[in-house]
Amino acid sequence: MTSPRTQSRVRAPELDGDVWLNTGGERITLAGLRGRVVLLDFWTSGCINCLHVLDELRPLEAEFADVLVTIGVHSPKFLHEGEAAAIEAAVRRYEVHHPVLNDPKMATWSQYAVKAWPTLVVVDPEGYVVHVAAGEGHAEALRRVIADLVATHEAKGTLRRGGSPYVPAEEQRTELRFPSKAVTTAEGRILVADTGNHSIVEFASDSETIIRRFGSGERGAQDGPFDLASFTEPSGITLLPYEVAERAGYHAVVADTAGHRLRGIDLITGEVSTVAGTGRQWRDGVDTGKALDIDLTSPWDVAWWGPAGGVVVAMAGNHTLSVFEPVSGSIRRFAGTTVEGLRDGDVHEAFFAQTSGLTPDGQKLWLADAETSALRWIEPEGETFTVHTAVGVDLFSFGHVDGPADKALLQHPLGLAVLPGDTVAIADTYNGAIRRYDPLTRQVTTLATGLAEPSGLLVHDGELLVVESAAGRIGPVPLGEQAVAGDAHAVRRPPTVLAPGELEFSVVFTPPPGEKLDDRFGPSTRLEISASPPELLADGAGVGTDLFRKLRFAEGVSGGVLQVVAQAASCDDGGEHPACRITRQDWGVPVRFEKGGESVLSLVMAGDPGK
């Protein structure tokens, strides 16, 4: 096969960063990898789409093991993610088996003009950038691009085969490995999601004595007896009301996050079963129906909430909430539009951002929205449900600031618990702190600091238990209320400087080798644009089928965030039954307006940057 990609002559910038991981202490250069195909994965550890890509790349790394070198470029969104200990933990937590460059100052990110997490860049054996893809769902396209490069450069004599520079770090087995959430059973025992060990651990009421473990410890989706069943990075757990459990046939529902399933556990027999999800990750289309027939996407937490009539599921993978009904075995979209952001109002129009923690409090359901560092709640109002924000600003503002809720800041919170007196405890994960929000006074204070990525909270026997994910433990934490002035931060990612007025905006999508756009059932592309604040856009917001649009910005607005969701359908070119797929990406693009700024903005979803 002859590739037109050889026409593109964009030289790949050398890699510039801080610390190399998974290399045995060696620094890697692109010059030293001449002759190999190099795949750069720009990611950050708190981004759910980035975690999806890690799973998508594993088969490619195995298939092209002797010609492909994958390098993760960890360009952090949050301050905590740039710390050496945090990225080392993330590489172990997510079983990353390729070299990783920590890029805390986003130097390599800027050199490659990256605009989104995740972004994938293919460098050919001669050191040129030949393909860029933003977002997830590009595995098959990458396979074709890499195969095309291998054939081309093998024929030219410029391909060099060899082993991987990956050197695994030493790993110590621990009782709990990156645990995430916990709940108390009716008998007073404690169930902990042992995420890194792919299992659920049942502790006695002392939170120290292990009674049994649900799951073999192997990554998988096997149903059956507790010692043979398997999970894939389970996270949230909720218990069903007694009468519901009796009818459903199980007592606990587990968010099996990386398995894209909900699992049921019978706490009497120990039997584990799949109760929702196909195991395929949702990309597009139907997300309401018979639960076992519906694709899910990284369910992160679950909570039984009476007003919704079932188990609310934080579908972190597409920034929505679903409701699972155990008795009927159905699931339905409950809230969110799939646009990542922070927008209150009716649940069907609200924006969420990787909701990772849920806790009910009567008529309220509290939410921890990780990517907007926000504490939010939902409550019924008349015929619908309404979303409100207690703490949080936008996708790019975070910090550790106490005081009035409209001034307070969090950093990537993952867990919640309702305390006596109806105040809310927040596992402020990336600040290593427990925070407290009082709905009556609308004040935020700090209860504890110095914790190792607290991810789950549980009120048990009058104590607040904290799941410290990075420390691999659960236990009580001494609480001493204090006020922290702290600091406000913003994402280091530089804003895009645009000229005021009109903008010619486009998204680039080029089908990979052997594919064409799929227009059999209508337009093959979709583009949705919104803004934060909404008044940023005077014209051009909304949904259309063209990947090109003229936008007009409102006068007097200094900046904000463009929220873009693009989608393209493509199919194999030829054959009686061609394989088809959906490519989808969302961007939150911070923009600032200045005279002399750009009047044209193009985002690459997939394609050759030289064309």
Regions with little confidence, pLDDT below 50 for 5+ residues:
1-8
Tell the overall outline: globular
Helix content: under 10%
Report on the biggest sheet.
11 strands, mixed
Structural class: mainly beta
Whole-Å distance between the termini? 19 Å
Give the strand tally: 45
What value does the average pLDDT take?
93
How many helices in DSSP terms?
A: 5
Determine Rg (CA atoms, Å).
24 Å
Beta content = 35-45%
What does it look like?
With 611 residues, the chain is mainly β. Helix content is 9%, strand content 41%. It is built from five helices and 45 strands. The longest helix is centred in the N-terminal third of the chain and has 18 residues, at 139-156. Residues 1-8 have low confidence and may be disordered.
Reconstruct the topology from this structure.
Blueprint (H helix, E strand, L loop, with lengths): L9 E2 L8 E2 L15 E7 L4 H16 L4 E7 L9 H10 L6 E3 L4 H5 L7 E5 L4 E7 L4 H18 L25 E3 L5 E5 L4 E5 L6 E5 L19 E6 L2 H7 L3 E5 L4 E5 L6 E5 L12 E2 L8 E7 L4 E6 L4 E6 L4 E6 L9 E2 L8 E7 L2 E6 L4 E8 L2 E8 L5 E3 L3 E2 L10 E5 L3 E6 L4 E6 L4 E6 L5 E7 L2 E6 L4 E4 L11 E3 L5 E3 L3 E8 L5 E3 L7 E8 L4 E3 L2 E3 L3 E6 L5 E14 L7 E14 L6 E8 L4
Parallel strand pairs: 3-4, 4-5, 36-44, 37-45
Antiparallel strand pairs: 1-7, 2-5, 3-6, 6-7, 7-45, 8-9, 9-10, 10-11, 12-13, 13-14, 14-15, 16-20, 17-18, 18-19, 19-20, 21-25, 22-23, 23-24, 24-25, 26-35, 27-31, 28-29, 29-30, 30-31, 32-33, 33-34, 37-42, 38-43, 39-41, 39-43, 40-42, 43-44
